Amino acid sequence: MQELGTITPTLEQFREHAATRRVVPVRMTVLADALTPVGLYRALVARDGTARPGTFLLESAAEGGVWSRYSFVGAGSVATLTARDGQAHWLGDAPSGAPTDGDPLEALRATMALLHTEPFEDVPPLTSGMVGFVGWEAVRHWEKLPHPPEDDLRVPELAMNLVSDMAVLDNKDGSVLLVANAVNLNGTDENVDEAYHDAVARLRSMVQRLATPLERSTVSVAQPGTVDLETAVEQSWDRELFMSAIDRGKQAIVDGEIFQVVVSRRFEAACEASSLDVYRTLRRINPSPYMYLYSFEDAEGRPYSIVGSSPEALV
């Protein structure tokens, strides 16, 4: 167990790690047993209630697992790999040697291989890496499918943050591991000491933010009877078309054309709440093994968030 308030590794140890690793987590453990995971996220990245692009919150309501012991807050990213017009596109500083165009899934695979680093033994299961989502439409990079649907949402098929700063809350003992990843973007041995001192400065900045009191944040939710859902919610298909699609899918299974199909329809409604408050409400009414809040920018700089609570791993 790392001693509270101690920065690991030392500069000398960091130099040794940097000789063979392109990502080195500089870390410090603090006691923050008065903070919830949402409070930790707010303190580090959303003090005004607005989720900042390049950040995330991952939680689990499951008990007894290695991963569910921890809640993970992504407090900053070096860059984001996304897609524009079906091609890989980087926002921020792409690592030297990483693909900057072409198939976005191949770019992700190549970047992961480029920056792959053996984990340290004394840290939680997630302290760095590429964190984000791969959407359903990415399957078209594996399978030849006809008739791509209209992209009316303008949400990329992929967005993965290259994590720089993290906070990992140990829900068992109340400690928080602060991590400032020193990512070697240019693949050289230059500026090693500067990278260490920069990581230490980011750690101290996170400590300062945790020590600064938060304004109280209370969410009130209207009772179901106060909202006319029939007029407030728009559906991508009406019920008749939806049921017809289900019947066609069942027949396609009988005919041997497919073995499984997910028929879905989208529900849309205007919402003035922040993505963080939507997440807070969702985790309360539907606590699940996999709960997540991701905040991004698209290739044109427009912010968007992905919020969810699922009983299954979405892999």
Describe this structure in words.
30% of the residues are buried. The longest helix is centred in the middle third of the chain and has 20 residues, at 192-211. It is built from 7 helices and 11 strands. The mean pLDDT is 89. The strands form 2 sheets. Strands 1, 2, 3, 4, 5, 6, 7, 10 and 11 form a 9-stranded antiparallel sheet that branches. It has helices at 11-18, 37-45, 104-115, 192-211, 229-232, 239-254, 275-285; strands at residues 23-31, 55-59, 70-84, 87-92, 130-134, 158-170, 175-183, 234-235, 267-268, 290-297, 303-310. Helix 1 (11-18) crosses helix 4. With 315 residues, the protein is α+β, with helices and mostly antiparallel strands.
Features:
315 residues, alpha+beta, Anthranilate synthase, 2 domains, nine-stranded antiparallel beta sheet, two-stranded antiparallel sheet, 7 helices, 11 strands
